[in-house]
Amino acid sequence: MTGKRKKQHRVLGSHLLGTLIALTAFALLFVVLCYAVTPERYDINVGQPAPTTLKASKDVEDKLTTDKLRQDAANAVKSIYVYDDTAADAVKASLSEGLNALKATLGGEGEFTAAELTAEELSALEGADETELDSAFTHTVEGVYALMGGRLEQDGLEEALGAFTARLKEEGHAPELAETMAKIAAAYIKPNYYYDEVATEAVRQAERAKVQPVTRIKGEVIVSDGEIVTQAQYQMLYTLGMINESSFDLWLYLGIALLVLTLLLSVGLYLYMFEPKIYGRPRKLTILTIVSVLVILSCVAVREVNVYIMPVTLGVLLISLLISRRAALFVNIPLAIMASTLAASGGSLLNMTTYTVVISSLVSGTVALRVLKAKQSRLQVMLAGLASGLSCVLATFAVRLISSASVMETLFISLYSGLSCVLAGLLCIAVTPAFEAIFNVVTTTRLIELSNPNHPLLRRLLLEAPGTYHHSIIVANLAEAAAAEVGANGLLARVGAYYHDVGKINRPAYFTENQLGDNPHDRTDPRVSTAIITAHVKDGLSLLREYRLPEEIRLIAASHHGTSPVLFFYNKSLTENGEANINDFRYPGPRPQTKEAAIVMLADTVEAASRSLTSPDTESLKALIEKLVRAKTEDGQLDDSPLSFADISKINAAFVTVLSGAFHERIEYPNVEIPKEEQP
Length: 680
What we know:
By secondary structure, the protein is mostly helical. It has helices at residues 3-37, 63-75, 87-106, 119-127, 130-149, 157-170, 175-186, 197-210, 231-239, 250-274, 276-279, 282-303, 313-322, 325-344, 352-372, 378-403, 407-439, 444-450, 456-464, 466-486, 490-499, 526-546, 551-559, 567-577, 595-610, 618-634, 645-662; strands at residues 54-55, 60-61, 81-83, 193-195, 215-216, 221-223.
């Protein structure tokens, strides 16, 4: 398999592992948040005593009471009727036509169809003389006009017709004729006063809407211990998901899933765009996942005491120490949002409590990072916790004053909020060693431990390759001074320099600084010598892995020669053989990719070459350093590093300062015999 294909497989494997880590992070955070916001369920029945005092886990509507009040308001609305002022004229016109048709029918010239008359009713009409019939027609018309002139409702139509019939009888008409004329009139009479169902329902709906929902606010007692549970109380507990028979709250869990997914996607996008060295490192992604889950679990654990004590700043502190300061600043945002969800505890996410948690977390996280900038020691972590706690108190006090009239209550809340940052600092100090041990990450404390001369590997280097050990000490001094000038991690550069040449332990005699006169390369083919010399990089990596040194130290050791050629043996091969391929005499690489690795490379080169100067002074040192650094630059060894030309100038100046001190002019002490001290 070619190197290109191997690299492609590594990248694909890294992406697959990163995806698996992201899915794991989603699952863990989703489960924790669901557990935290889902209320405890109880075996409760209507008409039975409550097993304990139950409070609302969020604002909940007393639906039964609200519905009853709304229905009462609707029932109080009177029905709305509409008067049809055109109905009377229409009835009069149709009645006139109908009576004319009836007269024609009685005269044998037509057929009356407005009402189905029985034989008895027709007989009553035909038996009346013309005068009586005209009088009946006239009284009928007058009676209909009188009815239509008032308000005639559908429900009152039968009663009106009964009164109409009685009036005809009072006018002296025979009962059979009066009832027949009333039947004929009924065929034409229509209500002119109608019930407006749409308008009535609109008014009732408006009255229902005026009734505000009866709610129990978060924390309010719904039912006390031993109290008989009513239907309304049961319904509220059911809505809150506190009844064993409660249905699965799909929308709650879907909302949590979407929230976690959105926040993780934002973090992933940020890392992809601005932190590719984290995005492509499964180990760092794993640490990021564990820290995030740890922070949320810590918030869940202390939430019941007081939501303002939730140690959200713990995420900023740990991520800054273990991964990256910039990543810590961004990840603090989703952590603050998830913590605010826990503060809401199932209630409205947009309230003063959640708003306070978000603002105080963002402010305190930023302050903590600023304090940690200079030095990331245990003491500095505690100072960061105290400083961020003070800022948290101020931020919380400011936010709570906006919504609270009680200054004392606001002050207590602010003090609790500040306590959260102190707790975060203590937790950070407690758990950081575990991360250092499990993931072998670089922290200030870890680097200080590795810089101890009694470290087993440094001890071996001192005893088995003493020249290399002393060379590494000087390189470390150079690297730390240069790193300080360009804003790199000076302690990392120093420790990386301590261990960069540990591979020489395997064959110390083949390296000049360990030789005492005899040089085995004088008897060795240049190509073999090159293989022995360049092998110390690979041997060093094996030793560093064996002693479990962090990856950052191993990267410095792996790249401290980059792909530079071993010029001495290349030149020797040219002299002996007449020709040689420069690529056969190069180190395997990789080239330095960080400021610290590049600085160690330059420091290593400069220190080794500076010992060749017989009478070093500042000008000669400066000329040599510039020549050596320029050669590395022209050979492309710094192409993958983030060093700028301005950085290189500062590094050169730092090297000159350190080496000038190392090669300072010494006074030649005279050879004088010291007389014995006279006894009193």
